[in-house]
Fold these 3 entries.
Entry 1:
Amino acid sequence: MTDDVFEVHRARGPFNAAFFSPLGPFIEWNLRRHKRRVYSELPHTVVELGSGVGANLRYLRPGSTLVAVEPNVPMHRRLRAAAARHGVRLDLRERLAERTDLPDDSVDSVISSLVLCTVADPAEVLAEIRRILRPGGTFRFVEHVAARPGTPTRALQRALRRPWAWTFEGCSCERDLAGLLRAAGFARVDIEPFRLHTPFIPFNTQIAGVAHA
Ligand SMILES: C[S@@+](CC[C@H](N)C(=O)[O-])C[C@H]1O[C@@H](n2cnc3c(N)ncnc32)[C@H](O)[C@@H]1O
């Protein structure tokens, strides 16, 4: 089981917060079509795991509430400012996605983007999502995953795994998240694999979809 402690590295914590601010629009432009599809018609209250500096606020209607589970405190100032700009009420929780502290069967929709690559134990996070979702609730995700075995992208993901994880605070490009989602016990999981064409090659293999509780 994961500890409840999220250690922000003195340099890399602020670096990542700063990195995702200017780079956010570029990543967003690349992911927008997939996000529009999976984040369409979100309910009035949404739980987001690892909100970062608020990339997904634009998919919520103004006036709605975002329960943001974000343990990385250097992100909080930018996240608060972004929520205010989008007119979204922010309920910010400095907690890990593995243990949100939300009640069982209490949530209609959980979202994440580019988070299951970074959490210590993605299977534990998926179990937590199932625990908090009401029957019929949805988990909507856009995540980057391991490329198919034997491909040049997969070889690069392997070769760069250590410096990549060091720079991006534990991020792994080698996770079979589609497999974990299918094994997590959801009633139904719809997954669309897709490929980005960015200079960040290990990051280009992605999935988007909806898991139904
Ligand atoms: C790559 S960033 C993505 C941020 C945002 N979702 C986006 O799409 O721009 C990963 C985020 O996951 C957060 N994170 C890392 N480990 C986490 C955990 N165990 N629980 C919740 N959030 C976590 C980080 O603080 C960071 O904000």
Entry 2:
Amino acid sequence: MTSIERAKPADRAAIETLLVAADLPLIGLELAIATAVVARDGDNVVGCAAVEPYGSAGLLRSVAVTKTLRGTGLGRRLVAEAEAFAAESGIETLFLLTESAEDWFPRLGYEASTRNAVPATLAASPEFTDACPNSAAVFRKTIATGWRSRR
Ligand SMILES: CC(C)(COP(=O)(O)OP(=O)(O)OC[C@H]1O[C@@H](n2cnc3c(N)ncnc32)[C@H](O)[C@@H]1OP(=O)(O)O)[C@@H](O)C(=O)NCCC(=O)NCCS
């Protein structure tokens, strides 16, 4: 049985291995590791997702599932858990950049957006400025409303 849980500091190397295998950037990962979630199958980390916090906005990044377990629902579960932790920490809107999953994120409720709609602090993040080309698609999703997250 694969469980989804908060990442531990010791998971960092396994997360990096997953990201490299999925051709996703490592740059800025240290900004997201505290809120990362992993899929754990026994002792093995088989999936991950992370959120970089920027006030009430967050950058969903590093969503990856090991190749042999793709298509089993892990990606969806990882994103749902990352969204839940982000909402708990006061994030209301998640943004993401992708060059490889433009047809997948809309299935999880993400809407196409633009770089101009991204808050300035988030647009200055390493993933936006250094890792992803301007051609990467931008998506956004409201995960909590202000009144609810402040209760
Ligand atoms: C994108 C990714 C995380 C999805 O994980 P997953 O565990 O396979 O996803 P799920 O099992 O929840 O969903 C599977 C469904 O999504 C579809 N899907 C998976 N990846 C997709 C993609 N990149 N584009 C479009 N559809 C995709 C599958 O075909 C499957 O469709 P079905 O339900 O109609 O059969 C995984 O494919 C992956 O690690 N890709 C490489 C890294 C990446 O591109 N990450 C996203 C950018 S951060």
Entry 3:
Amino acid sequence: MSTTTTLFDPTEVGAWRLHNRVVMAPLTRNRAPDAIPTDLMATYYEQRASAGLIITEATAISPTAQGYADVPGLYGTEQIDGWKKVTHAVHRAGGKIVTQLWHVGRISHVELQPDHQKPVAPSAIRAEAQTVLIKEGKPEFQPTSEPRALRSEEIPGIVQDYRHAAQNAIAAGFDGVEIHAANGYLIDQFLKTGANQRKDDYGGPIENRARLLLEVVRAITEAIGADRVGIRLSPVTPANGIDDADPQPLFEYVVKQLAPLHLAYLHIIEGSTGGPRELPERPFDYGALKTAYQMAGGKGAWMVNNGYDLPLANEALAEGADLVAFGRSFISNPDLVARLRAGGPFNKAHRVTFYGGGAEGYTDYPTLDQAG
Ligand SMILES: Cc1cc2nc3c(=O)[nH]c(=O)nc-3n(C[C@H](O)[C@H](O)[C@H](O)COP(=O)(O)O)c2cc1C
């Protein structure tokens, strides 16, 4: 009898029983004016509820955590009420949904910050990166603004914002949260030498650069329970102009520290987010990362992402991954699970409607049934 695990086998992850191992990756879509989730967003997520788990688009934990036009937040009552529509719709359709908690740090623009203040960051180093403003209804890419370095005494307030947003997530009906520690945003900026030149307890050696991440994880797990919390890491992506001098020991330290905290899952972006899975100039051993986690007693599910299709996903499962997150293919295939099961065909995603706009390129991609 074959015991091969497939993408379509159910599994227990933390507090959840998932129908399958296909995860919808977090996807920013810039369709939340005033940072409040809309009815259209509820429809979009409900259409994708056959995923084993949905991770929402990145969601700002505070007004200063904001770095792009029309992204949602989770720090005010109207936002909680907006998200309730989304979580109820997904649950009605039999799905599970967590929200991705986000602080962009230096990946922002003064136009998006309260009182047009400078964005905050570990150090006052501007990112070689762009952000998206919406001008006359159209996305407009702009260079990020120069940030200011957070003072040491401001950091507990940031941790508190994460804790509060996690509590709001539960109030909004989410099954849990994913901590966004990837892609060159605030937590990743603290982790990596290219953005962190601090001289206090949050800069310098690895233990110091990982301090904010671990404080955030502890605060959130204390608030809502570790079995409802996952974390996303991207050891080598250059996304948003981020870089580290020596990522292998950094991330092995991080996962060893996470091991005893009993998170539901670790979500690892392999290679360059949305780009090549192998970067010759930034080699990284993901097998060694997983071994480091498991040898330290880590039992959370291992979720992989970046450029996966069905054959590659099956390979990853055979090699011991527990969950596979799909990004762009979920944008254009609301019934991605059924399409993977059927071996295709797959709708193509239209880039021009990724960021901003309305229903077009958002809720109008057909299912297999609708395509006839
Ligand atoms: C339109 C778009 C928006 C994205 N937004 C987010 C986000 O909010 N948070 C995040 O961690 N990654 C984000 N990503 C990265 C995806 O989650 C994913 O890592 C990437 O698309 C690679 O996976 P794929 O090859 O399956 O698409 C985004 C990617 C795209 C294309």
